[in-house]
Write a structure and sequence with these properties.
The chain is of the alpha+beta class and about 400 residues long. The chain starts with 6 loop residues before the first strand and ends in a 7-residue tail after the last helix.
Length: about 400
């Protein structure tokens, strides 16, 4: 079938999506009609995969989410799966599960200490009692864009909140990283795109075009003003509400700018180790759900990983987005996202053609800005690979 006859649908009217489809000469159809590819919202995916719906995918149909993607992209299930993954490795006596003298994981300390609420409320409060000077950030498990987030540094705040109706809903509470790396006195985090085309075997790619998201206000300890979230939350949708928001650059820096900054202030070897450590987080977050995600051949997933770097240049996984924003706040932002989507399509649709899911997908001719993060069908044990790189002092990098 010629590419011009492929039919696509979406419930996202975003320029970077539509422009890429039109460039390929594909035909847009309503979601209710027969389609070959659907770039769908999470709600639509849940409906299509609901057995009660009676929908069955054809051999020439693809969609942009795995059926149970929430195992990695809800805040509570992400932490649950990473904890289970580490516990399973520990039971096996796997070297990756080694702990240090402080009883923290040496290689898999990738997320801040986190508790699920309301189930872990008592355990969390015991931890708070042991460390009464600690600061915690509370987030709804299934919300985005900074909605419903608040910061606490006193037990009385949590006890008061526990009496509200909101406390009966699903939340996570994480130890606040109170020593973030600052640039220009401001806190920031990273948004990096990771594409997974298969979980069994695991095949994942990471894109070189990500960005830093800066707060509009200079950083100050939570104790100075815990309610000023413009100091602490990096979400663009939230920071746009600030009078200090800059519409020209959108409060963003490219990853290349960050790399240059780290190389210039700390050295090239330090910058390489930092980005290698970030790749390590991606890999083990994916492996934590590898046995759980339903590896449907009709699916792929473009994740938006949010990473925070502390002042010791240790990266932390904050959350993972199943539908990273495709809205553009600046011209450069629009170009970046259009490029990422174009590169996704070139990998998912080799030669510009939609693949029959009954046939193994041919390797893409071009990865564009993506690099292979991990290909289980072709790679050795990642733990052994990391040891080799450490000994050789030659970390595998993406640029």
């Amino acid at each position: 079938m010629a590419a011009a006859k492929w039919k696509w649908a979406t419930d996202f009217d975003k320029h970077c999506l539509i422009a890429n489809f039109e460039q390929r000469g594909w035909q847009r159809v309503p979601a209710e009609e027969e389609w070959n590819f659907f770039w769908a919202s999470k709600q639509t995916v849940h409906r299509l995969f609901d057995p009660a719906n009676g929908f069955r995918f054809g051999d020439l149909q693809m969609i942009n989410h795995f059926p149970n993607h929430w195992e990695l992209t809800r805040k509570d299930t992400m932490v649950k799966n990473i904890k289970r993954y580490r516990k399973d490795l520990e039971k096996e006596g796997h070297p990756l599960a080694e702990r240090n003298e402080q009883n923290r994981f040496v290689y898999l300390d990738i997320v801040p200490d986190t508790f699920q609420l309301p189930g872990d409320f008592s355990v969390f409060m015991e931890e708070f009692k042991r460390n009464p000077s600690s600061t915690w950030i509370v987030k709804p498990s299934a919300s985005s864009q900074g909605k419903g987030i608040f910061i606490v540094n006193k037990m009385a705040q949590m006890l008061k909140w526990a009496k509200t109706p909101a406390a009966q809903r699903s939340y996570v509470v994480s130890r606040y990283v109170d020593n973030p790396l600052l640039i220009g006195g401001k806190k920031f985090d990273l948004r990096i795109y990771v594409l997974v085309t298969s979980y069994k075997p695991l095949k994942a790619y990471v894109h070189r075009l990500g960005f830093c998201r800066f707060c509009t206000a200079e950083y100050a300890p939570v104790s100075d003003n815990p309610d000023d979230l413009f100091v602490h939350l990096t979400n663009v949708s939230f920071q746009k509400q600030s009078a200090e928001y800059n519409e020209i650059h959108g409060g963003k820096w490219t990853l290349e700018n960050l790399r240059c900054f780290i190389e210039g202030t700390r050295g090239k070897a330090v910058a390489e180790k930092l980005f290698d450590d970030i790749n390590w987080i991606f890999l083990h977050a994916l492996r934590a759900v590898q046995a759980t995600i339903i590896n449907d051949r009709h699916c792929f997933e473009l994740y938006g990983f949010d990473i925070l770097i502390d002042s010791n240049l240790k990266p932390w996984l904050i959350e993972i987005n199943a539908s990273p924003s495709l809205s553009a706040t600046t011209v450069s932002d629009r170009l970046l996202k259009a490029t990422v989507i174009n590169d996704v399509f070139n990998i998912v649709f080799p030669d510009g053609e939609l693949c029959d899911v009954r046939v193994p997908r041919p390797p893409p001719e071009s990865l564009g800005g993506f690099q292979v993060l991990f290909d289980e069908s072709a790679a050795a044990d990642p733990a052994a690979d990391r040891d080799k790189r450490a000994k050789a002092k030659k970390p595998v990098m993406w640029r």
